[in-house]
């Protein structure tokens, strides 16, 4: 946990680079996304769409995002969810600082930010209508506890959705994940394949829908 916290504190200090990569902005980011993740611009757009596909248009319930990171992908979506009550959690205060100042610039004054651990969420059972987790579960070391907490805070009938790295789809990506992302504390094994993810989620949720673009799976399911 300490290694992951330190790694993302560092990312928070280098947020411009991180945000460029996540938004596929600029030539270095586009080359890196293509080389390491196999994502060209078309595949990147699919990755982005599948990550947020579970949020209903005009959603107006209570939404938890964990982890929010710098909010570079999700905050633009929250601008359109004017009737929703939104809570964003992340372990790293440096990542959260970037997300908070982005929210201020975007005039998203009602979005609440909390520093916290996905395995010990500071919310009562069945608080949320939707839990969003974009690129979080391949980072969390204790995935079982993280899944249990998400399930606990989600209302019956609520939606769990987002995206996650899946192994076995691209050998170069898997090599990069093992030898760079894991080594420096950005990712934690074990990882799902699209089919093990579907099987795991189907044991807890109904209406499980898995898509994948290269090494990223999108998931939407209902408690
Ligand atoms: C790859 S980033 C994804 C963030 C964001 N969803 C995005 O796509 O930009 C992973 C994030 O997980 C956070 N994180 C790692 N372990 C965590 C934990 N146990 N609880 C909550 N957040 C955690 C890190 O601080 C980091 O901001």
Short description:
Helices cover 41% and strands 22% of the residues. It has nine helices and seven strands. It has helices spanning 2-13, 15-22, 27-37, 41-51, 75-78, 93-105, 143-153, 171-181, 194-204, and strands at residues 62-65, 85-90, 112-115, 128-134, 154-165, 206-213, 216-222.
Q: What would you call the structural class?
A: alpha/beta
CATH architecture descriptor: 3-Layer(aba) Sandwich
Distance between the termini: 28 Å
> Order of helices and strands, N to C?
HHHHEHEHEEHEHHEE
CATH superfamily (homologous) name: Vaccinia Virus protein VP39
Strand proportion, as a percent range, falls in 15-25%
Q: Which fold name corresponds to the CATH topology?
A: Rossmann fold
Helix fraction bin? 40-55%
User: How many domains, as an integer?
Assistant: 1
Bound molecules: S-adenosylmethionine
Radius of gyration equals 16 Å
Just give the CATH class.
Answer: Alpha Beta
């Amino acid at each position: 946990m300490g290694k992951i916290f330190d790694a993302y504190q560092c990312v928070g200090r280098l947020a411009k680079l991180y945000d460029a990569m996540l938004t596929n902005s600029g030539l270095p980011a586009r080359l890196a996304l293509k080389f390491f993740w196999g994502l060209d611009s078309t595949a990147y757009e699919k990755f982005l769409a599948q990550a947020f596909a579970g949020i209903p248009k005009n959603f107006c319930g209570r939404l938890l995002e964990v982890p929010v990171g710098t909010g570079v992908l999700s905050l633009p979506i929250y601008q359109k969810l004017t009737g929703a009550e939104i809570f964003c959690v992340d372990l790293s205060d440096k990542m959260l600082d970037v997300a908070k100042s982005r929210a201020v610039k975007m005039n998203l004054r009602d979005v609440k930010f909390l520093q916290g651990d996905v395995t010990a969420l500071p919310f009562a059972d069945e608080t949320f209508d939707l839990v969003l987790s974009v690129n979080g579960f391949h980072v969390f070391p204790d995935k079982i506890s993280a899944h249990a907490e998400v399930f606990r805070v989600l209302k019956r009938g609520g939606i769990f959705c987002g995206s996650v790295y899946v192994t076995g789809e691209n050998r170069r990506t898997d090599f990069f994940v093992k030898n760079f992302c894991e080594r420096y504390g950005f990712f934690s094994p074990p990882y799902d394949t699209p089919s093990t993810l579907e099987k795991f989620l189907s044991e807890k949720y109904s209406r499980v829908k898995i898509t994948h673009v290269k090494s990223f799976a999108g998931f939407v399911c209902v408690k």
